Queue: 2 jobs
Job 1
Amino acid sequence: MTTDKKTISDDPASWSPETQLVHGGVLRSAFGETSEALFLTQGFVYKSAEQAEARFKNEDPGFQYSRFGNPTVSMFEERIRLLEGAEVARATATGMAAVTASLLSFLKAGDHIVAARAMFGSCRYVVETLCPRFGIAMTLIDGRDIGNWKAALRPNTKAFFFETPANPTLDLVDIAAVSALAKEHGVTTVVDNVFATPMLQRPLAHGADVVVYSATKHVDGQGRCLGGAVLCTEKFLTDHLQDFIRQTGPSMSPFNAWVMLKGLETLPIRVKAQSATAAFLADALADLKGVSRVIYCGRDDHPQATLARKQMTGGGQMIAFEVEGGKEAAFRLQNALRIVKISNNLGDTKSIITHPPTTTHYRIGPEARAELGITDGMLRLSVGLEDQNDLLADLEAAVAAARAG
Ligand SMILES: *Cc1c(COP(=O)(O)O)cnc(C)c1O
């Protein structure tokens, strides 16, 4: 993408992201295939008993068993690692497997975790319910204010965990400020970077230690396979993550890795197109009668617009908005849509609408919803790859239908 004259070397680290995502990490077999091969195999054959022994002693590099490693999965890991500029990456079966493995691989009974309370429902379960069951104390805070992170610190605090932008309110956490505070106190910062995607935000560059993804979302990007990834340092991998994944088994299947690998090739153009449409729709929605509020990271009226500009290179493809008339109006709006689909997923080529209070955020209850600013009229829109004018026409008609009720 750069227009400056540059010399191309064989080192993928010197390539632009668009090039890394097409060619990075390729392991060609003896057949010299153009497209990456799908290695659907559980195990690997050794040439001799001696080689098997050497492989298990880590003296002979190579694969042993697909729970530990597989060529197709390795290609996916290497490609996303390059993009993120991380030392290492490990693929997992789902985004939640990535979140759980990243936290439980290094936390132990007696430790304390601080997390921003605005987060994906299942992440909240891991922090709020699962961690305490294993003796890991937790504190949930409003992560927007650095003072709250400071105040929550205890001598045994070992992890800071947050997502930014958060689901569904698009609240932001200052990655650099929180990571700097964490470093001062020997705390590991884990960031769930799903909403921003690796194209629009690089938490590691802002000081985070570990980044997790639900590859289910924009990496596949076409609503097919579940997957996740953890990006971290060699040290974190060797000290914690490697054995955890190897021995407990939240590994990514080769088939899903192959789908994700091909998804990465088109990630930049998809994110760019979807973000442009989202910016267009956010502005259009803000002008519609019956829409009382629009939250979009690329708009100047986002409550943390300055921070958004500091740590994100684009507004992303998620929009939250509120309709007048609460749940009834929000339901009428959803039911009137022709192109946008009602689903709780996101990051698809198909535009998707969700009513968080009755779906993804139903279980946390009205009090927690009020605390997070999730009102009964709030809707979350994941913008797809359809024509922006078709989407606008669909939304305009649906907002009109919501008002007419
Ligand atoms: C979807 C999602 C997850 C969980 O990912 P799965 O692949 O569904 O397990 C975690 N965090 C965020 C922010 C998500 O959007």
Job 2
Amino acid sequence: MSRLNVMMPFLGEEEIAAVSEVISSGWVAQGPRVAAFEQAFAQAMEADHALAVSSCTTGLHLALVVAGIGVDDEVVVPSFSFIATSNAVRYVGATPVFADVDQQTGNLTADTVAAVITKRTRAVIVVDQGGVPVDLDSVRSLCDPRGITVVEDAACGAGSTYHGRPVGAGAEITAWSFHPRKIITTGEGGMITTSREDWASRARRLREHAMSVSAADRHSAVLAPAESYLEVGYNFRMTDLQASVGLVQLNRLPEIVRRRRELAAAYQKQISDVTGLRTVADPTWGTCNYQSFWTEVTPAYPLSRDDVLSRLASADVSARRGIMSTHSQPPYASVPATLPVTERLTANTLILPLFHQMTEDDQARVIDVLVDGARS
Ligand SMILES: *Cc1c(COP(=O)(O)O)cnc(C)c1O
């Protein structure tokens, strides 16, 4: 029996051909493929503007910069997220304030955000955790009248929907990830989508050193126009090598999500018969891409979460502890945090293998361990 991974990217001959073509063209840095990927991504996500960046982390950083967030500002974030969500707040010198999450979705809600808002709150970063769509409208109803910007961290969210539209479509600004652990991949990479033209054009400049003329435009001219640097920018560019892969991956997205939802439904059906286990599910307002299929091991189950993980490991099944809590990590240990749901989910959830190429037999191996465990 071979090792069953928790996640595998779905890549094939078309990605190899696309990269080969870029190498043959001689233009490997940010250029026409990045522009084409941005356009295709904006269309797929129903966004007005899209600009590619080097990762979701740099995308979140730029989103906060263009939203004008800085020193003296508080930004509400879930501790229940990958640490990059909070790190982006620190990069701009602002103060992260942790809000708890809803136990059904693992996401912030208007109530948990309202509980920690102060006069200094200038932004909230909501996360579509594990691909579960956040109830964005309720958070925006709270924040918009108070002049608080809502940034959506949709690192895990490509292919999930909210009220029938792609997640992120209803946010002023959204950041996406193309890391291989996410739903589609470019190796490393990210995207910002936004409804605001002014934010899009500033972020577009900032991602390449705040140059007034893009490198692509300068290099395609015989006599390059003189450029100027109007503020301190960054090198957060994506390459055409990555974008060529992204274009193929974006075409695969509907098929990837369809297969993941099929596998998730099979897990949900079979695990619902096991007393003491609770699985992630679609909320009433949308559909999940099931980027992370998490399961809570409740006290009604005879084994602890860590026992389940080691039994899975004995069957050569690589599962993972659930979503981390940022407030338990050293850089955030001094941030005040009363987060009972976050702590419960972090301690008691695990992420089961789920990827496009997974077979029914693979899934049966996972289910067998969970069913056996219930009898112990
Ligand atoms: C993975 C992830 C990130 C970071 O994405 P990168 O592209 O690796 O920088 C940020 N936020 C969340 C919620 C994530 O899951």
